[in-house]
Amino acid sequence: MSNLNLTSTLKSNQSISVPQLGLGVWKSRPKECFEAVKSALSLGYRHIDTAAIYGNEADVGAAIQESGIPRSEIFLVTKLWNADQGYDSALRAIDVSLKKLGTDYVDMYLIHFPVSGKRNESWKALEKIKAEGKSKAIGVSNFMVSHLEELLKETGTIPAMNQVEYHPFLQDKELKEYCTEKGILLEAYSPLAHGQKLEDPRITQIAKRYKKSNAQILIRWSLQAGHVVIPKSKNPDRIRENADVFDFNLSEADMKEISSWNENFRTCWDPTTVD
Length: 275
Fold this sequence. Notes:
Blueprint: E1 9-11, E2 17-19, E3 23-24, H1 30-43, E4 47-49, H2 57-67, E5 75-80, H3 87-101, E6 106-111, H4 119-131, E7 135-141, H5 145-154, E8 161-165, H6 173-182, E9 185-189, H7 201-210, H8 214-224, E10 228-229, H9 236-243, H10 252-258
Parallel strand pairs: 3-4, 4-5, 5-6, 6-7, 7-8, 8-9, 9-10
Antiparallel strand pairs: 1-2
Helix pairs in contact: 1-2, 1-9, 2-3, 3-4, 7-8
C-alpha cells in the first residue's frame, strides 16, 4: 500500500468506503475537541472518530457544521458505551448520540467494548439501527477473535470494522488474520502507543533516514500495513504532522523490521480478559 494520500479509503464488507487516516478525539475536552476537529477538517481530514463516553459528541457536531464541508463528505464514527448496552438501551443511545452530533445518521456505529451477557443483544440493536438508516455501517471495538466468533454464530451481520489498540509493539497477528479472512477492517487506535514508545532508538534511526518524525514513521507503518488509523491529538501542529505522511514510502525491509517489534505492550484496557 504505497500509493496513498489523505483521501485514500478502504472498502468495508458492508460496501462503505472508510478514509484510512482519521482524527481521534478521546480525552479531548469540549472546546479543545471543537478546535481540533475544525483544524483537522481544514487540513483535509475527512474521518472523525468520537464516542458517547468521550463527552464531546456535541463539539464534534458543532465543528463539522461550522466547517462548511457537506456532511456527506465526512466519515463520522461514534460508539455505544458499556452502560447503554442491551437491545432497547442501545436503540435509545444512538438517538441521544445523533442529537448531540446534530446529524440524522453516522457513517459507522461501533460497540465500544465486548460486555459479557450484553454484546450480542447490542449487536442485534445495531443491525436494526443500520436497517433504519441511522448508521450506514456497523462494527465493533476491542473485540478479540473469541468475541467475533461468538458474534458471528449469534447474528447474521459481519462487523464492517474492529477498532483495537494496534501498533508495532502490540500486534495481535491472529486477530488481524481473522479480520482479513472475514473482510473486517482493522482500525488501529493508539497507533503511537500513547507516546510511551516514541523515543525507541530503533524508530529514531529509521526516522532519521526518511527525515521524518518518529510519530510519522509509526503512522506510515500502520497505513502501509493496511490498517485504518486514528491518531488522536488536540494540537493543530501535531494534527498537521500526523497527516504529513504521504510523501514517502517505508521500504519493504523497514516494514519487515518494524513488524518484528511486537512485545504485547498494551497501553489501554485489556479485552483479552473478557470471557
